[in-house]
Amino acid sequence: MYRSIRLEWIALAILALSLVAAVSAKPTAMVPRNIVDNTQTLAPGIPTFSGVDTIVITPVFTFPMHGFAANALALPEHFGTHVDAPFHFAGPGHLFVSGIAVEDLVGPAVVVDVRDKVASDEDYRLTVADLRAWERGHGRIPRGAIVIMFSGWGERWGDPDAYRNFHDGALHFPGFSAESAQWLLDQRDIVGIGIDTLSVDYGPSTDFIVHHIVNGANKWAVENLANLEQTPAKGGLMVVSPMKIEGGTGGTARAYTLFNFDGGQGH
Ligand SMILES: [Zn+2]
After folding, report:
1. Residues flanking ion ligand 1, Cβ below 5 Å
2. Distance, CA 95 to ligand 1 centroid (Å)?
C-alpha cells in the first residue's frame, strides 16, 4: 500500500513538473510570428493571360433549398495565383502538377525587388546582376530557395487592363530573362521561381523561353503572386500549394510566407 501510494505521488509530481516546464518553455524555433498571404483571390473578372479565361462558380446546394451551401467550379488550371508544372512547357517525361513533391513546394523565399527598374521599363527583364545584387545584400541564395521577382506589378491587379497592359500588338509587363533563369538552375540550387505578373516570361515574349528553361529542368513557376511588399527579402519560408490535379499542367495555388521565426530568423 505504502509503495503504491508513493509511486502515484511520484507520478503526480512528474506530471506537475512537466506541466510547469511546458508552460514556461520558450516557443519552439518553428513558430513564425508573421504570415503573409501571397495569393490573389479567385473571382470572375480577375486579370488573365488570354483576357477571356474566367472562373464559373455555380451554386449546387443552397441554404434556402438544402440547408447548406456548396458550389461547383469550372476554371482554367492557369488562373489567378497558380503553378506552372514542368509538363506545362516541357511535355512528356516531365512532372505533372500532381507529381511535384511537397518538399519541393516549400522553401526559403528569396524576394528580389526590382521595382525601381520596372518603373522606367515596363518590359524589364530580371538580370543575373539583379540576383548578384540580392546576394551582396543578403548572402548566397540558400539551397532549396523559391526565387521571386518582385516587380511591383501586383499594384495593378485591381485593374485588369493595366495588369495585362496590351498595346502595340503585345502584352507588356516585366519578367525573368533567359539568362537569369538559366543562372539560377546552373549556379544555384532552387526548387522554383515566382513573380507578381501573369507570366515569368515578360509580356512581349513569343518564345516563352523562361518557361522552357525552367520547366525543362523539371522545375515549376508560380505566377500572379500577391503582397510581395509585405514579404521579407530574406528569412521567409514560402509555401506554394497548387491543386493536386492528376495529369494537371498546373493548378491554382494558395501561396504564403512564414517569417520572424522565434529563434532569431527573419528580419
Ligand atoms: Zn501558368
Report:
1. 78, 84
2. 14
∠ CA 135-210-188, rounded to 5°: 30
Q: Which CATH number fits domain 33-40+77-261: 2.60.120.1060, 3.50.30.50, 3.40.50.300, 2.30.30.240?
A: 3.50.30.50
Domain segments of the chain: what residues?
Answer: 33-40+77-261
Spatial distance between the Cα atoms of 135 and 50, rounded to a whole number of angstroms: 35
pLDDT by residue (tens digit) across 67-80? 999 999 999 999 99
Distance 248 CA to ligand 1 centre (A): 11
Instruction: Tell me, in angstroms, the distance from the centre of ligand 1 to residue 127's CA.
Output: 21
Using CA atoms of 261, 176, 219, 98 in order, give the dihedral in degrees to the nearest 10.
80
Q: Rounded to the nearest whole angstrom, what is the distance from the C-alpha of residue 24 to the centroid of ligand 1?
A: 47
Average pLDDT over residues 77-99: 98
Cβ–Cβ under 8 Å, residues 57 and 230: no
Q: What is the pLDDT of residues 211-237, one digit of tens each?
A: 999 999 999 999 999 999 999 999 999
Instruction: Identify the residue whose cell numbers are 506552372.
Output: 84
Q: How far apart are CA 256 and CA 173, in angstroms?
A: 23
**What is the identity of the amino acid at 241?**
S
Q: How much of the chain is helix, strand and coil, in % rounded to 5? A: 30, 25, 40
Q: Please report which helix (H) or strand (E) contains residue 166, including its range.
A: strand 166-167
**Residue listed under C-alpha cell 541564395:** 141
**CA dist., res. 66 & res. 241, Å (int):** 31
